[in-house]
């Protein structure tokens, strides 16, 4: 399959629809920082990422439009994947990898279902500059030099398509369940099924975006600015077909099944909001001795 052609077609379709007289405006920004320093504090495997979303559209009224392309999300993310030890890892551990992705996505309502489809261009390897940045950080902080960077996965560019379909079920005034299915083809190819349960009414009319590493959902467009607190629990399981981060000719053998369990707390005040969550990630390769716990953080201040 020619992913480059498919990605270019997908981006063209997203930017072409719909055509309206009024101009788009920025409806909101969303971001999520993840790091295992906020989880099990062991600096390994899915060790850190940062995902940012800028949403453009004509208006946000608390519900998704029914037309694809009316809402456009410009998404960027950076990630570091590392072996268990940055200086002397086990010989059968996964290789260091740095990724940087830029993409265009759209969210819309289809027959009462939440749909998100999009395309990303994912850059892997030293070309991203992320490994050099990590070396600089370690040097400035007086930390051990990450020698595994010299054996990192090489440069590559992977057009990636991703789609998700979810449906919200109200469980009374204070709870909402959203099961979903997701598929991705590109830098990692998989199909996934899972769900998220929100306890509390905070953020129900926000536009939410899913983080690629943890599966945590973060706010990209604000709806009603209610004050209070909500709790989120969720999980999913995936069947993974291939991964550029765990190449088939490498020592580390890709695990076919991959699961995530997550929980989080979202608090909204008058001029500030914060989300903190933790996610358990199962083993991603056969030689991985155990899963890991990583944290996620989002902080917003208004002046």
Report what the structure shows.
By secondary structure, the protein is mainly β. Helices cover 9% and strands 51% of the residues. It has two helices and 15 strands. It has helices spanning 3-16, 130-141; strands spanning 25-35, 45-57, 72-82, 97-110, 113-124, 156-166, 169-170, 175-185, 188-199, 207-210, 217-221, 228-243, 257-268, 272-281, 292-301. Strands 1-2-3-4-5-6-8-9-12-13-14-15 form a twelve-stranded antiparallel beta barrel. Strands 10-11 form a two-stranded antiparallel sheet. β10 (207-210) and β11 (217-221) form a beta hairpin. The protein is globular and about 50 Å long. The mean pLDDT is 92.
Q: Can you lay out the helices and strands and say which pair or pack?
A:
Blueprint: H1 3-16, E1 25-35, E2 45-57, E3 72-82, E4 97-110, E5 113-124, H2 130-141, E6 156-166, E7 169-170, E8 175-185, E9 188-199, E10 207-210, E11 217-221, E12 228-243, E13 257-268, E14 272-281, E15 292-301
Antiparallel strand pairs: 1-2, 1-15, 2-3, 3-4, 4-5, 5-6, 6-8, 7-8, 8-9, 9-12, 10-11, 12-13, 13-14, 14-15
């Amino acid at each position: 399959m020619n992913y480059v052609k498919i990605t270019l077609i997908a981006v063209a379709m997203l930017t072409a629809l719909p055509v309206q007289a009024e101009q788009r405006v920025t409806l909101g920004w969303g971001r999520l920082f993840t790091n295992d320093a906020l989880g099990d504090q062991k600096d390994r495997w899915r060790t850190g990422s940062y995902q940012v979303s800028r949403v453009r559209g004509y208006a946000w009224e608390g519900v998704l439009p029914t037309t694809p392309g009316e809402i456009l999300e410009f998404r960027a993310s950076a990630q570091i994947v590392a072996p268990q030890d940055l200086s002397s890892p086990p010989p059968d551990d996964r290789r260091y990898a740095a990724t940087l992705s830029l993409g265009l996505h759209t969210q819309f309502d289809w027959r009462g279902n939440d749909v998100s489809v999009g395309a990303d261009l994912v850059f892997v390897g030293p070309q991203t500059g992320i490994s050099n940045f990590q070396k600089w950080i370690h040097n400035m902080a007086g930390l051990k030099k990450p020698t595994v960077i010299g054996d990192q996965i090489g440069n590559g560019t992977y057009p990636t398509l991703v789609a998700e379909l979810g449906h919200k079920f109200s469980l009374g005034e204070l709870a909402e369940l959203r099961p979903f299915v997701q598929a991705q083809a590109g830098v990692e190819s998989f199909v996934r099924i899972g769900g998220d349960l929100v306890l509390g009414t905070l953020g129900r009319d926000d536009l939410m975006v899913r983080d690629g590493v943890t599966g945590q959902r973060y706010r990209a467009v604000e709806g009603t600015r209610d004050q209070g607190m909500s709790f989120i629990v969720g999980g999913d399981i995936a069947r993974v077909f291939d991964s550029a981060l765990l190449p088939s000719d490498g020592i580390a053998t890709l695990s076919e099944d991959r699961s995530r369990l997550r929980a989080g707390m979202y608090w909204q005040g008058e001029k500030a909001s914060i989300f903190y969550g933790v996610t358990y990630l199962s083993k991603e390769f056969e030689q991985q001795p155990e899963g890991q716990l990583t944290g996620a953080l989002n902080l917003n201040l208004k002046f």
